[in-house]
Structures
1.
Amino acid sequence: MIFTTNDTAPMQPTIMPLGDGALLVRFGATLSGAANRAAIAFARSLAELPLAGIVETVPNLVSVLLRYDPRMVQLEQLSGELRLRLYAGDNATLPPASHHTIAVTFGGEAGPDFDAVAALLQLTPAAFTGAHNASALRVLATGFAPGFVYCGFHPPELHLPRRAEVRAAVPAGSVLFAAGQTAIAATAIPTGWHVIGSTTFRNFDPRATPPTQMRAGDTIRFVPAS
Amino acid sequence: MSASLLIRRVGPLTTIQDAGRFGMLAHGISASGPMDQAAYNLAGRLAVAPPGAIEITTAGLDFDVETGPCVMGFAGGAFTVRHNGKPVAWPGTLALDADDTISVSPGANGNYGYLRFDGRIDVPAVMGSIATNSRARLGGLEGRALVASDRIGLIDGYAPELASASAPVAEGPIRVIWGLHADLFPTARDRFVSTPFRISSRLDRMGVRLEDPAGVFTDSAILSLVSDAVLPGDIQILGDGTPIVLMRDHQPIGGYPRIATIVGADLDRFAQLRPGTAVRFRTVTLEHAR
């Protein structure tokens, strides 16, 4: 069972140009489990059965980015073919995905915000770790930084806003927590999310093909590092 | 045959680029590539060069040819180039031999120039490209900008990159297509296309901040938006009202509202605008973007 948040039906998908060589198919204006699932499913269906002229397909939190070659296909024609796909497809169902188990060291030097987060949630440290790891999450999106993944959603009682202060850099492997999600940084990044732990897992190897292992739609379970 | 160059003096943010590392957005890697693609292509035609260039910035570059010979093509903006102390016309082509010295110094206009060679720049490809990504710190020479005392090896025997001549550079306002969140700026929207902005001194391969002397976006409310895909040319409005144009080393995902996107054909000349230059925008429909 994957917990979701704001799980209303996705809005009618909209197709919008993004400059003159790309478009976005958007399934919502706000983040919801339904819009996220629809975006991932639509991106997967395009990857399985590509449309001519599309050179890159990227699922985002609630949309799919399509870069196209304007010499091969015009926006109007491409939009028409996408609408046919959107009406024909059942975009609410996710195809089977890979599962990942990620060992995390919570708190201490690895997670400077862990104690404060547990206190804000009115949980003991052990209870917060247990609640955090209780359910499998879905990789909602990738791409913010090399190998970075957003995973969600936690149940509403674990939702916290981001920190007021942005840290200029947190190290690779940082496990981040905010907005009903847990994220994993594969490289050093600036972030306003709470740093609750760290993992030795790195979802980025520039020498590997492909350079990352996690895809949007994969399932993920966090376990305490032994 | 091969050649080797020894960098003697180098301006900041000088990097090795090729056409770009495309197809990696889902992995969190923007494509990078030349800030001025047309100039990169012209320098390549002048040298009959395989993929790869040294992208120089306003301060220029001095180097010695340690071993040679090699052919160098150069283009982009208007720099001053000296071959063994003697001025040479820019853009152009030079046949270089061992012990030659090249000095490229600032010229009349432009932020980026391209030096391309008939040999392949000897750095390892990362994910299929030698382009330096200054955000992800990969590609090029150890993922970093060039520094004095770096050596650049050039290897012969690689096929030239075929790039067709670009359309003539357009003049007048920079053309844009309305962006994802243009409707969220009901009052600023009209003023955006009727008001001049200015290129600020805060510019790099990731983005160019604009000055907004008329205060078009000063009172824009800070909006909470779901993060979405970003591409080069996107004009996003930061929380304090600063417009920033995202460039080749852009973040792949952004959460700030975007009013418009510069069309592909005008991004090269936008990249070459120096700090202090006034810039106007004009909206076009997609049919007229090319």
Note: Confidence is low (pLDDT under 50) at residues 1-5 of chain A.
2.
Amino acid sequence: MARRATFSRRVTMTAITWVLAFAIFFPILWMIQTSFKSELDAFALPPKFFNFHWTTENYSVVQDRSDYFRFALNSIILSGGATLLGLLVGIPAAWSMAFAPTKNTKQVLLWMLSTKMMPATGVLIPIYVLYQWLGWFDTHIGLIIILFLGNLPIMIWMLYTYFKEIPGEILEAARMDGATRWKEIVYVLAPMAVPGIASTVLLNVILSWNEAFWTLNLTTTTAAPLTAFIASYSSPEGLFWAKLSAASTLAVAPILILGWFSQKQLVRGLTFGAVK
Amino acid sequence: MGKIVLKDIRKTFGDVVVIPGVNLTIEDGQFVVFVGPSGCGKSTLLRLIAGLEDQTGGHIAIDDIDVTDAPPAKRGLSMVFQSYALYPHMSVRSNIAFGLKMAGMPKDEIAKKVDHAAKMLNLGDYIDRRPGQLSGGQRQRVAIGRAIVREPKAFLFDEPLSNLDAALRVQMRQEITKLHQDLKTTMIYVTHDQVEALTMADKIVVLNRGNIEQVGSPLELYESPRNLFVAKFIGSPTMNTFSGPEAQRRGAATIGIRPEHMIVSRTDGDWKGTVSIAEHLGSDTFLYLDVPGVGPITVRADGEAGFHAGDTVYVSPVSARMHRFDESGMAFK
Amino acid sequence: MATSETRLAGRILAAPSILLLLIWMIVPLALTVYFSLLHYNLLDGYAQSSFTGVNNFYYFIKDPAFLTSIWNTFVLVGSVLVITVLGGIGMGLLLDQDIWGQGPARIMVIAPFFVMATVSALIWKNLFMNPISGLFAWVSTSFGFTPIDWFTDYPMVAIIIIVAWQWLPFAALIFMTALQSLDGEQKDAAQMDGAPPISYFAYIVLPHLARPITVVILIESIFLLGIFAEIFVTTGGGPGLATTNLPFLVYREALLKYDVGGAAAGGLIAVVIANIVSIFLTRLVGKNLES
């Protein structure tokens, strides 16, 4: 609850907040705008603010030239696959930590957290070499597994904090009602935890989608997602700003929309429940 | 049928002994209340009977069948939880039907039973609502409805009224009593509220630190408590107890007298004291006295007696109602 | 508080995740340690590798690039932390005020966090920081200044701006959430006591934010210590070594110089640094588990 403000104070605060918020958002807006310019307008000096000829040709060029949809499909496969695997392994684990804790549960949870803090740099070499040996380099399965393992601790933590809020008595009531363990999870726990599971999925998709260390280092073409697609614009092609902007907008848009939906739950997931 | 026998039931959590060893027989159709201060093990005992906890040792039998290792669902018991534990994502109807559905009962039969229970508990108006849209009393009724439809051998209640306000608590108390009279099914009811215990039970089990202090009808516990703990736990306000010369004079280590078993007078009596607080409740007045040489005493006086703080008062215990206890706190027979 | 059957189910259901994470932790780390002791060039193949002891560490640390990269790492992490924590508190306070259109403002502020690193780096590099046609150059010229050639003259500052822009929303969002949980009665009481805004902030808001600030610093540190993509697509670590941080140096050793042993040694140094941060974070989160 904010402190009740006088009218003039409220006007001032609103103005300051909106100016700053707009400034923070501006690069994204500018990127979207540039994506609708011709290359000539994109470089024009002074820059053109909305007073240019709007065109969608960049989008079709981007698609024709670099096969945007193949990269986008890879992004979907990788983040979707990693998230699905994460749910499959994470929900049972989180159930266990929340409803059948042992005296080691706390240590196990903290240890899981600590695996997340392992810098990717530290294990780049063995993973790279291992993937060459296993034939997993630049394959969907290889990337899915690495994204899945990298985010598993966050998923378990998020699910755990949501499950913790469900009173154990309700699961016991189901047990009294004759539900088996499986039915207890499917009919009672899962439906009650839908909001929590949904935001866990969202955050995990976002993190996998934007992951830009492994996806850059372990892919070349076959399994390369949008992060690599954009990185290819750092070469001379980056000189085509309108096309770069169009490609970027396409790469960012889906996740931006998902992110806006999940912003409230995001805090909990990213801080491992330390801030709610 | 619903006869429950506990034999040498023990429960420990690590090094902490919650229930050192309980033997108890609950006859079919009885309304048994487990009562005791918080942490006395009464809820744990109920959960052991339900099968939600493992006993460390001992045996449980329901209708002469050993269910010691049976999972909760196989024991044929229903439970009403303190938080009601309704499934928030299901309608009232689905909540009540859930147990029957899990048992694989045909749909039309489920519908019949749910309707019957709904009628019995007046749930008709909100049968399609979610628990979140109901008041505390209504949720309580749904929880009871969910317990009833399964036609259990016994009902287990875990402090079911503690989340309700005072007026509703009295009403629900009566409804549960009425339900027991109609169904004649065994009920085990856990509470820390001795008023609930006294008003509802056929048989009260007083628990303290995991031990059964006394088992008996409400009146038995009131009239002849077996020891000091029961004497002080049952009855409101609490029984006055004294040790020292007054007790020795009567050949006991401790004596006890209930506030309502003393005669109050302005002019003469055994003990002379000063009123420190007078609580006027209309029908009764409770006087908290300082009696030099004896200690603080609580007595009940007539509602219109007109005593006030600072008054000098004489009180005399009715000797027939006096309770005498030995050094170990046990009552003399 | 459960039956042995429940506990058993708990163990069985937790086992896969524990097992997988154990492998994920131990196997690569063990291999890193092993490789760090080898003279192993990726082009020659594993068969040509030979044991070389701690030589890799010796050469990696002695390489002037190492100290530079450590310094660059700390400059990058430190500057971004200062900017995002201070800016985040300010933005969080503003968003917590009673203003019109709080929802849309919040959405705008949080947006950069969802933009993938490669995109934000390239957009900033080209559309904004380009010395000729970039927006910044135009603004400078309009006011009569010489445009700054960011990636030539101030490459590190440019990287810091990009990374701070990405992480400011995270800090702001967390501080805003924390502020919203500040007890309304405390605010009312402070108002009744006639506390001026400054002391209200110093004695009530700041202590309340102490924990979120710690959380933000620790979590950002973990991510910022691993910054890679932003450098990869903009400066490539240059000019010279100006923007080479530890992760980028390891990448350079491994995938540009094909020196597996040296890169592994550098990776282990990164692990040690990250673990120092993670010990604090784990403690903090662990404390939270108890309450």
Note: The beta strands of chain C are 38-39, 50-51.
